[in-house]
Structure formats: structure tokens, C-alpha cells
Specification:
Blueprint: E1 2-9, E2 12-19, E3 22-26, H1 27-31, H2 39-48, H3 50-63, H4 69-78, H5 88-95, E4 100-103, E5 109-113, H6 114-124, H7 126-170, H8 178-197, H9 201-207, H10 221-239, H11 244-262, H12 266-272
Antiparallel strand pairs: 1-2, 2-3, 3-5, 4-5
Amino acid sequence: MRKNTEITVLNATVRVQRIEREDFISLTDIAKHKNSDDPRFVIQNWMRTRSSIEFLGIWEVLNNPDFNRVEFDTVRNESGSNAFVMTPSKWIELTGAIGILSKAGRYGGTYAHRDIAFEFASWVSVEFKLYLIKEFQRLKETEQAQLGWDIKRNLAKINYRIHTDAIKAYLIPPKLTGQQVNLVYANEADVLNMALFGMTAKQWRDANPKEKGNIRDQANAAQLVCLANLENLNALFINEAVEQSERLRKLNRIAIEQMEILATDRSIKRLEGGVINASSRSVD
């Protein structure tokens, strides 16, 4: 699985690819900081040095069980001489290396595992390396924050499946038409919307005609956690044959209690990146 993204380092764009759970950074983009016209020449010059070959070899020994050590010894012995020439493609072909990739296409160029990329950046420019590390760390922090948000959102979706299955099993007669079934689902969804947001999905759309998505898409992390809990509780109440009006009153009371706690929870605030302003209106 590959995920392409970009970071900006000293006004230069550096591409990053996520490949098999590892981050690979474009050496081509880093090399442009030193020679924008011919970055390949910069990479080849770096790979000509004995210290670079030894670093690459040690990295492969630690991370690549299929690394060809016999060929590596030959390359290392030849490195550093005036006649020695090494390119990323040749290195990969000779040793079976996995730490460096040579790619074609839109995201083409030479990429390397972040460990190798940082070492190369240090050779190009210590200043560039430090800014590269800083921006890369910022990227990872952003990804972690997004991951946390996705987990909360997916949790709500999973619990929604439990919720709708309970509706299907206990509230929908088998002979209802498809349209009637959808109306029941929409009606039950609005039980949760009323309990947590104080309005139905239609009321929210009417009040926010320019907003994208629906009322739940605009929910913050605290509301999503609360929503997941309400979906489970509503499924339980449905199984126990509790009347809808009574379920709504119970769920609204629980929503208010939980939001008072979640709104001040530090982990939720960190996930949001700021203070959560959320409120639930009581249902009479």
C-alpha cells in the first residue's frame, strides 16, 4: 500500500511515500537543494564515498534478510577509488537492497527509507537535514491526530451497524416495503440526533444549507464518542422493548451527563487540538 504526500523544507517540496508501513523520502528532492539542474549527480556522488556505502550496507544487514553480503563486500572494497561509480539502480541490482528505491512516473525519482534519507540530507546540508526532520515530525504528528479522529469516526460507524441491526430485528415488520424500512431507520437515527444534538437531521440541514455532509459529519470528537455510546444503549433499549419516547428521554439524559464529562477530558482536547465547545439540549 502506497500513500503519497509532500512536506515543505526551506521552501522546497520534498515528497514522502508510505510503503509497506515504512516512510520513504525522495532523495531526488533533497538533492535539488544542492543541484536543482542535475540531482542525480548529487546522489551518485554521495554513493561513491566509502562511508556512504558502509552506512547503506549496515542498514541493509539490519533490515534486509535477503541482502547480498558477498556483492556488498565487493562494492565496499571498490568504493572510494577514482574509478568507482555507483547509482541507486546499480546498488539495488547488485545487492538486492530494499532501503533505496528507483521509481518512474509522476512520483518518480530516487526514494530512500527515512533513516537513509536523513543521512543523505546531512551530507547535502546540515541545515536542510534539521529542517527536514522537523517537518517530517510535524507530518507524523498530523497523521497521528488524523488517525485518532478516524478511529473515533469508524467506532461510530461500527456501532451504528449494531444499532441498525437491532432496529431490523425488533422494530421492522418483515412485510414492510423498502421505503417504509428506510423511514424507520431515519426515524431511529433522529432519536439519537435529538438526544445528542437537540435537532433532527432535517432541522440541521434547514439551519445549515451551505454546510457539506450531515449533522454527524460536523460532530467533534467528544460528540462522536458519546454518539457511539448512545447507539449501543439505544440498541439495548430496543431489545428490551422500551418505547421510543422513553428511550429518547433516557438517551438525552445520558448524553448530557456524558458530554459534561467528555467536554473537559484532556485526551479528547488533545485529539481536537483545542477546546471543545459542545452542548446538548434537554428534551422535555
